[in-house]
Ig-like domain-containing protein (Anabas testudineus), 602 residues
Amino acid sequence: MNLDTSGYSRGMSLLAILCLLLQLIFELSSCTHLRVIPGSTLELPCLMFQQEVSGDAITWKFNGKDIKEPVRVSKDGFHLKISPVTPANQGEYMCLVKDENTELINMYNITVVASVGYTIKAIQGKNVHLPCHFPSTSQVNSNALWIKEANEALNTEDENNKKIELLYPLDHDQTILLREVALEDAGVYHCESAEKEKLSTIYLIVEVAPTPEPHSCSNFTTPWEPCLDENSRTAEPILQESTTEFSMKLFSYLRESYPFNNLLFSPISISATLSHLLLGARDNTRKSIERAMCVPHNFHCVHFQMKKLREKLSSSLQMASQIYFNPLMNLSESFIDQSIQFYDAEPTRLLENSEENTAMINSWVANKTKNKITHLVDSISSNTQLMLLNAVSFSGQWKVKLDLKQKKGQFVKLNGDIVRVSVLYHSKYLATMEHVVELKAQVARFALSGDSSLYIILPRHNKLEDLRYVEQRMTDTAVRQMIQLMKTASPQHVEVTLPQIKLDVQPDMNVLMKKLGLSSLYEGANLCGLYSEDKVFLDDARHRALLELTEKGVEAGSVTSLTFSRSFPSFSALRPFILLLWSDQGNVPLFIGRVIDPLERK
Ligand SMILES: *[C@@H]1O[C@H](CO)[C@@H](O)[C@H](O)[C@H]1NC(C)=O
Ligand SMILES: *[C@@H]1O[C@H](CO)[C@@H](O)[C@H](O)[C@H]1NC(C)=O
Ligand SMILES: *[C@@H]1O[C@H](CO)[C@@H](O)[C@H](O)[C@H]1NC(C)=O
Ligand SMILES: *[C@@H]1O[C@H](CO)[C@@H](O)[C@H](O)[C@H]1NC(C)=O
């Protein structure tokens, strides 16, 4: 494999000028950073443009030491050639040019990346993922280029291309999915950035498919295994921990997919939907859902614990599940029974036509969300076999009421723009407020009725990097530690200012499902526990979440609260923040969100 550097020479004359400028101010730092893979050939040009310099005037240095070996420097002395590249070649290369007219220094910082070569074996006719990732530190401004063999550029950005799909456009993960690989798809694939940085190389081997076995549920039609120890002390924490881990994983996917918008989702609703599906999933589909939900494989009590959790949350969060199915499907009896037992959902037949079904489903959603969400689907295709729904409705009142200020507040966005918002205010709110060192954030906890709390997490400064820092640190462990800290800290009187927000967000659940490693559901799921006659395919996934901060009944009296004393600390969320709605009873997150612009609608 050859790393062609001729492209660099042209493309980087600008950088060369930058190098010259840097040289003038004696601030020599890395000018060109290249990532290369072991086994490749690297040719570094010393000069970026034609110059009257003799080869004798050039010295190459590696990590500060002169490079003596003549083999390493090609004959004319203008290029440094390394072939094959090994991890020992990683470091700083410097080319010094010194004669009467010129004095020049050119630097390369070479990183040898060992983990980017993959050999992948695939069976003819199956789908295969070709992995590629941008370094986590870089910004993603354009998608990676995928090239087969030396020169055949693959079209990854055409949505109508059924063969190749770039799973997460403009994401750090530039993995592509090749569908139904044929023998001629075998070969070497390269993934590189627009700046021609090599990101991964994949040797794809395609093997002839064995004669396919017909879809059969013969071994998988048994019902979900009983939970033998319903009073187990460990089962409840297992589900709590899995749910929090799952929630924070979803948050990390979503914050990356929507870096500049408000964000809101209900992990508990997504988790309950997946676990309901799990009830009917068997074999590999079951394993991938368990992995996605972060629950251990063969945790038989998962449904029983879900039911317990739903009951535990019911004082503040009402959860409902529902299944609609095509009357021509024969749902398994045991699935119907267990669905009622664990999810309180009696499968309901779909009606004759799309309009009736759309109306039926939207009105179920409206009813179960107490009219907070009245619309989910636009139409129901006649091909629809099965639809799983979950709705949650949360209502919690501030333990101490807030006032709605008459005067609007100024919410300062990340770019410095000011948005005028209605403001909820209290001059002496009894709240817990801490600086959480691990998150580099100021966190306030507001107790709500129904044994739950709203946490507002304010990054240290109103800067994008600070917000990103906090978000990246919000792992399940860090969040649990934060909750623990906030629970033990004593409340104090705080002057509180919150924007009156109404979030209504509909993240792309299809992308989320793929991120969760559930792409295979779109290609055919083993739902033998639910229905044993034919394979079904996931067609669409949706999620919508809505959240409103109001003064909850306190309509007046805000004028006085303008004249406050500065003698106690204040907590003002009039700039971007992250919110976490937590059930203290169930010890799991209910809603997670981010507010960038309080007036943004969808
Ligand atoms: C070269 O890259 C390494 C690893 O990324 C980094 O630690 C080092 O500071 C870089 N050197 C320069 C001069 O940029
Ligand atoms: C079902 O199980 C039997 C024995 O456990 C095995 O021989 C058979 O191949 C299995 N059938 C399928 C379709 O997996
Ligand atoms: C559903 O089950 C019934 C009775 O078990 C059977 O007669 C019918 O053919 C099945 N329907 C389908 C679509 O397989
Ligand atoms: C939901 O439906 C039930 C049963 O039909 C009804 O009693 C209840 O009032 C409805 N709730 C809302 C918010 O519409």
